[in-house]
Write a structure and sequence with these properties.
With 229 residues, the protein is mainly β. It has a single domain, classed as Ribonuclease Inhibitor (Leucine-rich repeat, LRR (right-handed beta-alpha superhelix), Alpha-Beta Horseshoe), CATH 3.80.10. The N terminus is likely disordered.
């Protein structure tokens, strides 16, 4: 399968032509330069299959650790393969959103430092805290609209995180104080099971109530004041 993508802005996506060969090797041509990316050996996909590799020219993605593997908006079913934790060399941004994936996120993914993660709009379950960590450099994490269930208060966030979307899950606990230290440009923790006072500081009060509403018992600005015991 060969497809072409063109950018709407010279700061977003460069024109990229790619061909999936042997269900495991991606041969890409970018501005006349031919490159290849080998996927984990156990990964296989149905045919026909839409596979996109997007190059963000603003961050020189073709040579830096910023290339992105888009498997989103297909009809993928089943669980995420453990082999997705076996990428070698530059680790991609991994986009699996808008599919029908189920089961738990493989522990092997916790060993990698993805540039961006988008697993939104699937049926994933269990603990996603393995995707976070103080030694990671992930900037964007979107886990929204799944069935994930873990204690947010115990998550150790990477300082690089600028966008976090976990809305519409079963996440519980409280919002940790260390989130005030993040330079967040986007945040959505709505429609979960969070409780307690929203910490004051950082960017947390710069977001409106819709960022936090429809939780079990969150309180404090920008929501209503916490009730005194």
């Amino acid at each position: 399968m060969t497809r072409k993508f063109s950018s709407k802005s010279n700061k977003t996506l460069a024109i990229l032509t790619f061909l999936l060969l042997g269900r495991e090797t991606l041969i890409a041509a970018h501005n006349g330069t031919r490159s290849s990316v080998t996927l984990p050996p156990t990964v296989s996909f149905p045919s026909p299959f839409l596979l996109t590799l997007w190059i963000n020219t603003e961050f020189a993605c073709f040579t830096a650790k910023s290339w992105c593997l888009h498997l989103d908006r297909n009809r993928l079913t089943g669980s995420i393969p453990e082999s997705f934790g076996a990428f070698q060399g530059n680790v991609p941004g991994l986009y699996l959103s808008h599919n029908q994936l189920s089961g738990k996120i493989p522990a092997s993914l916790g060993n990698l430092d993805f540039g961006a993660i988008d697993f939104s709009r699937n049926k994933l379950e269990g603990d996603a805290s393995i995707l976070f960590g103080p030694n990671k450099t992930t900037q964007i994490v979107d886990l929204s609209r799944n069935l994930l269930e873990f204690d947010l208060s115990k998550v150790a966030f990477q300082s690089s995180l600028t966008s976090l979307d976990i809305n519409h899950n079963k996440i519980y606990g409280s919002i940790p104080q260390r989130m005030t230290q993040l330079d967040l440009q986007f945040l959505n923790v709505s429609y979960n099971r969070l409780c307690g006072k929203i910490p004051v500081g950082g960017k947390l009060q710069s977001f409106d109530y819709s960022t936090y509403f429809h939780n079990r018992c969150l309180c404090g600005a920008p929501l209503e004041s916490c009730k005194k015991a």
